[in-house]
Amino acid sequence: MAEIQLGAVEARFADMIWEREPVTSAELIKLAAEKLTWKRTTTHTVLHRLCEKGLFQNNNGTVTSLLSRQEFYARHSKKYVDETFAGSLPAFLAAFTRGKRLTAEEIAEIRALIDKAGE
After folding, report:
1. Most buried among 9, 39, 41, 66, using CB within 10 Å?
2. Spans in the chain with pLDDT lower than 70
3. Residue 111 class from Cβ within 10 Å (0-12 exposed, 13-18 middle, 19+ buried)?
4. pLDDT at position 99
5. In the sheet where 56-59 sits, what is the strand order?
6. In the beta sheet, which residues pair with residue 63?
7. CATH code for residues 8-67
8. What does pTM read for this prediction?
9. Do 5 and 42 form a contact (C-beta atoms < 8 A)?
10. How far apart are CA 35 and CA 89, in angstroms?
11. 13 within 8 A of 36, measured Cβ to Cβ
């Protein structure tokens, strides 16, 4: 699948869809007017663009995702680690935690993720 790039406003709108899906385009128009101060035409334009990118589908006025929020952000995170840290997760974690003290809860979460990935 081709990489999907989102601008800041598109990402905010996509998050609104992921939080509510399945959601009708009518609901999205109302929500975007309230949260983003968009007109109906702007909402339709951005929704159409996100559907063309392969992120969502609009079937008879009901919008659902073709790619989950988790999968979308996982792909972007992996790409970032690949490009910035030559694919080295330990190098990324070293940079991320430099100058930051992890809480016991964060350490436990990271350990659980590593254990799960190692299974």
Report:
1. 66
2. 1-2
3. exposed
4. 85
5. 23-24, 62-65, 56-59
6. 23, 58
7. 1.10.10.10
8. 0.75
9. no
10. 36
11. yes
